[in-house]
Amino acid sequence: MVKIHIVSGFLGAGKTTFIKRLMEILRNEKNVIIENEFGEVSIDGDVVKKEGYDVVELPSGCICCSLKLDFHEAIQNIIEDINPDNIIIEPTGLGTLSGIFEVLNFGDLKEKCLVENAITVIDGEGYFEQQEVFGEFFKDQIINAKTLFISKVDNISVEELNNIIDSLRQINSDANMIYESLDSLSADNLCLLLKGKTLEHQVMKDIYISSQKKAMEEVHDFQSMGISIKSEHSRNQLEKKLKSLNNSKLGIVYRAKGNVPCCDGSLEFNYVKGRLSITHSNLKSEGKVCIIGKNLKKFRINMIFQPREVKIYGK
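Given the sequence above, the corresponding structure tokens read:
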């Protein structure tokens, strides 16, 4: 039976980084990663592929709603054609765990695979804002998780962390909760997480089914756009452009991610509601930007990223 590991989380919480860490533990097994991105531009899939892992991409939609049939078919094909030891699923941040469980329990899939763990990555820096913004998704992803991993804890105070823990416990009192940095999390504890075992105790519970109508309405409020970039950028140029996204005249930009060419490789970046990080890669790659938000003023955003040299597409 194929083991399923689900790594969910909200936009920019750090799901892909978490998966890369988990793959270090699974490196001696046969693995396939399913990447589901809301936007039409694949960013996370490219990041994971660079590590040499097998990736199946399901872009431009959500596997818990509009792409349910595609997701079910992808799982079937992976099991029949590859028969891996593990399938790691990274759903879009605008998805519900209950919707994924519904697909995995449909037809004969439940006889072919076993969900070992459902991990939700929580953005420690943006927790309370996301709690307000993501509504039904927020509750569904937290209450159906067997493990809650709070990321970016190095950037918050002990008091803020305790407030987050208290809030999470009010939503899901049974889940195993981890709030140490990935680098300090031991390999033994990561193995326990992969097997769905808590570090203290194991509790089984029923699946919380979110309001699918309400969740769909919330998804439809979000937009995405993709921009292809050919021109080279310096770190300062890129940082200035990303900071300019925090402007109400552009709509509400919740998430931006991607990479742009630079003189000696490429600059990979992540932007979450005003917070950003930029890292350098020696590998040259096609410049791509994915932006997710509400009421996006696409022409104005396009103008930020060198209008004479970009191609814009999206929904």
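Residues 127-143 form the longest helix (17 residues). Try to locate this feature in the token string yourself.
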